[in-house]
Specification:
The complex is a heterodimer. Chain A is mainly alpha-helical. Chain A is built from eleven helices and no strands. In chain A, helix 3 packs antiparallel against helix 8. Chain A is globular and about 75 Å long. The longest helix of chain B is centred in the last third of the chain and has 37 residues. A two-stranded antiparallel sheet of chain B has the order 1-2. Chain B has a single domain, classed as Orthogonal Bundle (MetI-like fold). Classes of the chains: A mainly alpha, B mainly alpha. Chains A and B meet through helix 1, helix 3, helix 4, helix 5 and helix 6 of A and helix 1, helix 3, helix 4, helix 5 and helix 7 of B.
Chain lengths: ~270, ~290
């Protein structure tokens, strides 16, 4: 029992020491990691006034926001649609969902890159002749590739929620002469909403964090993980430590806020029930 | 034809169409392109030139080291992660005060939601020459090299994937009916025997789910080997990045990508069969 407690403490230290190192060195006045020169907050100021970092951050937020929104909508629609079909159509969709999840990101990134490059090579001469404009890789190709994976994730979560749903509520609503759209808006959607929100949040985090797919398909656009990666390769990261710490604190705050909101709701529900 | 039926079919199509379009253009089409490319030849300046040859597949042994590393280190790292995660999940599900349970579980998962690149970078610092080896040198263990070895990759894998392994094991342990343990104790089993014959077999599905998730992510990983293996310990993912972005041998890269997918699907299939049979056998033994 004592050994187990010790082990648990060790694991928490193991999990948090690398994060602690990032946070501590973000306050280092020197340029190099593992070389403590004294306390300073200068890198925070420099990071936030570095136009490259700010732009990368905005690009990443835009991509993640768009991915979360689009995949939540399309994934939910697909989950609702799959409930209405059987046989071949359903099997094909099920298969595609699992393939989208199982194929490694690096293969998705490569396949998407190669397909886009091939496609652009074919259509760009025509497009250019007619519209004086060329298709290029960039933010929108990253969003498209992220949405693909996250449709699958949202769809699985919402379907689990649909499967657990009490059918009698829908029947009751129909018996009370609600239109199908009314039933959907007033009964089905509120019940699915926690699943949809959970899926959208997952999609946002995945997209915001993703380096592998973006690295292949971002073209000349730079996302935050791509910027972080190139800084690490150059071995100079004080500004990155600062930005990393800010992102970390934001996500921890959001995580704790979500926990508190959920607890509050649960207590209220228990209170209302009792 | 019944109009309600027609309308219902139209609604279904409208619901599925957007996802269908994405799956077609971003999954099916790219995979077809990759399959076609895998039978082609490298264009002189890099890229693809049309051909029909099996050379790319016959050439796979040229990247045998990457394939071997992936096939040994990914399963080993998955196993180590499961072993490291189990006691934590057990502690959280069974031993800890329920008031702290959720908070502690969230703390285990939280690192996964922070920048993966920065966390692996921190490990480069910890395992690098100014980190742990320099502290060990102070107490008389000189010249220990951890970074850029398979050990560094294994440590990084356990670190990176523990947050994903703990939750499914936790869920399966939490669902466990405590009355089974009481029954086992009443029948005179020692706590250890109860654990081995009741708790462990019942939590095996959770271990299987977690391992599957981690295994899939590890097989396709290339950040972890690149950062902690430093070009000395590389996976198939690293070979793919090299083939597509540096040496620009797209057809060979396409063949290697498809081989990676094939290996993964076969491994997952075998693993599922093995685990399902094991847990069925155990359950029969318990009953």
């Amino acid at each position: 029992m004592k050994a187990l407690r010790l082990y648990v403490v060790f694991i928490y230290i193991f999990l948090y020491s690398p994060i602690a190192i990032i946070v501590i060195y973000s306050f280092n006045s020197g340029r190099y990691a593992m070389d403590w020169q004294g306390f300073s907050t200068e890198w925070y100021g420099k990071a936030l006034s570095n136009p490259l970092i700010v732009e990368a951050l905005l690009t990443s937020l835009t991509i993640a926001g768009a991915t979360a929104l689009i995949s939540a909508v399309i994934g939910t629609l697909a989950a609702l649609g799959l409930q209405r079909v059987k046989g071949l159509c359903r099997n094909v969709f099920d298969g595609l969902i699992y393939i989208a999840i199982m194929v490694p990101s690096v293969v998705i990134g490569i396949a998407t890159l190669v397909a886009f490059v091939t496609l652009f090579d074919i259509i760009n001469p025509f497009v250019e002749a007619v519209l004086a404009f060329r298709f290029q890789m960039g933010m929108w190709t990253v969003i498209a590739a992220h949405v693909l994976f996250n449709i699958a994730v949202v769809c699985l979560i919402v379907r689990a929620r649909l499967a657990g749903m009490d059918r009698s509520l829908v029947e009751a609503s129909e018996d009370l002469y609600a239109t199908p759209l009314g039933t959907f808006r007033q009964v089905v959607l509120p019940l699915l909403l926690p699943g949809i929100i959970a899926g959208a949040l997952l999609a946002f985090t995945f997209s915001f964090e993703d380096f592998v797919i973006a690295f292949f398909v971002a073209g000349s656009d730079i996302t935050l993980p791509i910027y972080v990666y190139s800084s690490i390769r150059r071995g100079v990261t004080p500004e990155i430590n600062a930005i990393g710490t800010i992102v970390l604190m934001t996500s921890f705050t959001l995580l704790i806020a979500a926990q508190l909101i959920m607890r509050d709701r649960k207590q209220r529900r228990v209170g209302a029930g009792g | 034809m019944n109009t309600t039926q027609q309308r219902s079919g139209l609604v279904t199509t409208a619901l599925l169409a957007p996802a269908g379009v994405f799956f077609f253009f971003l999954l099916i089409l790219p995979l077809i392109v990759i399959i076609v490319y895998s039978f082609g030849e490298r264009a002189p300046a890099g890229g693809y030139s049309p051909a029909f040859t099996f050379d790319n597949y016959l050439n796979l042994p040229a990247r045998g080291k990457a394939i071997l590393n992936t096939l040994t280190l990914a399963p080993l790292a998955t196993l180590l992660t499961a072993v490291a995660a189990y006691p934590i999940a057990y502690f959280l599900a069974v031993k800890v005060d329920p008031r702290w349970r959720l908070a502690l579980l969230v703390l285990v998962m939280a690192p996964f939601w922070t920048s993966q690149l920065l966390r692996y970078y921190a490990w480069i610092l910890i395992l690098g020459s100014k980190g742990i080896p320099s502290w060990l040198a102070l107490i008389g263990i000189p010249d220990l090299r951890i970074i850029n070895t398979p050990y560094a990759v294994l440590i990084g894998a356990v670190y990176g994937f523990l947050p994903l392994m703990v939750p499914p094991i936790y869920v399966s342990l939490e669902k466990l009916d405590k009355r089974l343990l009481e029954a086992s104790a009443d029948l005179g089993a020692t706590p250890w025997r109860s654990f081995m014959q009741v708790t462990l077999p019942m939590s095996l599905p959770g271990v299987a789910t977690g391992s599957m998730l981690v295994f899939i992510l590890l097989m396709g990983d290339y950040i972890l080997p690149q950062f902690l293996g430093g070009g000395k310990v590389f996976f198939i993912g690293n070979a793919l990045v090299d083939l597509f972005l540096q040496s620009r041998n797209w057809p060979f890269g396409a063949a290697l990508s498809l081989s990676l997918c094939a290996i993964m699907f076969v491994a997952i299939f075998l693993y599922m069969r093995f685990v399902l049979r094991q847990s069925n056998l155990r359950q029969e033994a318990v009953v």
